[in-house]
Task: structure prediction
Amino acid sequence: MDVYRTPDDRFVDLVGWDFAPNYFDYQGLRVHYIDEGDPSAPPVVMLHGDPTWGYLFRHFIGPLVDAGYRVIAHDHVGFGRSDKPTDRSAYTYALHSAVLAHLMDHLGVSGATIVGHDWGGIMGMEWAGDHVDRVQRLVLMSTNILIPPLPPGITAYQAYAVRHPDLPIGSIIGGGTYLEVPPAVQAGYEAPFPTAMSKAGAVQFAQLLPSDPDSPEAAALARIRDLMSVWTKPTIAFFSVKDPVFPYPESGEALTALIPALDEPIILDGCSHFMQEERSEVIVGRLLDWMTS
Result:
């Protein structure tokens, strides 16, 4: 398997990102995560989606550590400082799921608050549902468990990603926000992806949302729906009415109807899909209040 490894100097002097890298091996792939705070403190595990990386949660890490939590944020294979197979066919939902499970076992995560955005929310729901005894809370942001047929906005982005394999990551982040994202921040999102071949995972992540009801990914998502239909641990969700990917009320109402533990979602104004760029202080404040209530 041909693998691209982003040079370390691409991560120097990024705005808001000065966290020490940590790595583990998964079947020959080097996978990155950050691990901040007291190792004995209650863990908060943050899972990004497409086409971001741990950088998405940079505004969350310091306040959560200061509040007494251990914060773990890992980069899925193909993203951030993790290795990036250059063949799109290497990326499957089963791979991403297995790598996450390996990370959690590697770090001995238990008593965790799982925070997931976009695909990270889907993966977080799966891991939580499979490890109920190791999870304290579940936090969902701009996510949903989609099954075929997919919404037009999703299929349009899937087609766009295939047509443009050298994805303009920074511009996509800017297009997925309501407020303007500064160029230096867009550069932070671009940092792991200096070449077209480094973006194979980002292109393929979008394709993993299944259009074929008989695909392995459709079966995986159906199983996650089953897991969440009996989920009773404390759960909170954040949505935006301006989110073109997982809009409210559609996505919020779908998850609320599915998950017994999820009450009315928190709806944020003045932000879009990448709400962490626009309403981080509000989200962190609401999150900490909820976690300590």
About this structure: Residues 126 and 223 are 8 Å apart (CA to CA). The longest helix spans residues 93-107. The mean pLDDT is 96. The chain has one domain: 3-292.
